[in-house]
Amino acid sequence: MSEKAWEQLRGWGRDPATVAVLTDIDGVLAPIVPTPDMSEVPEELRKLLRRLSEKYRVVSGISGRAAEDALRLLGLEEIVYCGNHGFEVLRPGGEVEIVPEAKPYKEKIEELEAKAREELEPLGAFVEEKGITASIHYRNVSPEISERCNDFIEREGERLGLRITAGRGVVEARPPIRADKGTATRKVVEEYEPQKALFMGDDTTDLDAFRELEKLREEGVLEEILRIGVESEEGPPEIVSEADLVVEGTDGVEEVLRALNGKG
Ligand SMILES: [Mg+2]
What we know:
This protein is of the alpha/beta class. The protein has helices spanning about 1-15, 45-55, 65-75, 105-120, 145-160, 180-190, 205-220, 240, 250-260; strands at about 20-25, 60, 80-85, 90, 95-100, 125-130, 135, 165, 170-175, 195-200, 225-230, 245-250. It contains 9 helices and 12 strands. The protein is elongated. The structure holds magnesium ion.
């Protein structure tokens, strides 16, 4: 199976103007490091991606990071960034845009942030402003205070019509619409109209992109797709079982980019 996928990749490399190259960033182009602000993209990968952006229909970095942050990490002005769980798009030379469906919620997110800063920060919580989503962190506070944070965001989220998701020591408020790497993938494909598209990913949220590619092919929007899984110990098993091609780490990703550059 994998030899066939490599053959397909090389074939795409001979007809790049019809192909979209979509990729996750952390764990794919940037090796996983202890904290996200330590991440770096190897210079060789950056060079290969820059070359792809000159001849492919579109190259897009699709990330959970804010779009601006993804641009800073990758350092390539030439590609399209979809950031913040698919809520943001940043095109070459443009400014960050919030997807139209989410825009009506921007003011509500800001209202929640302001109120959380006033009520929760004095108690030891930290409000992280992420544009169209807001995160309230309350690690290292007493159980009583973490409960107050939870109650606050549940009450305010409901009042403002936002979706609330809870993690360990963090709650997040976001617009109540579907936005993920799958919706981002569809947006890029519909906007740039490639005939073929690939996505490289290493984690659970990347499976949404894999599955959306499959749908786009079933709908006849795409003629061919390639789902490339970057295998790691921490990654979910589906990143391997749902992939057409499995590679290991940034070295494997480099091989893929070389093949796309006609040097495989
Ligand atoms: Mg990743």
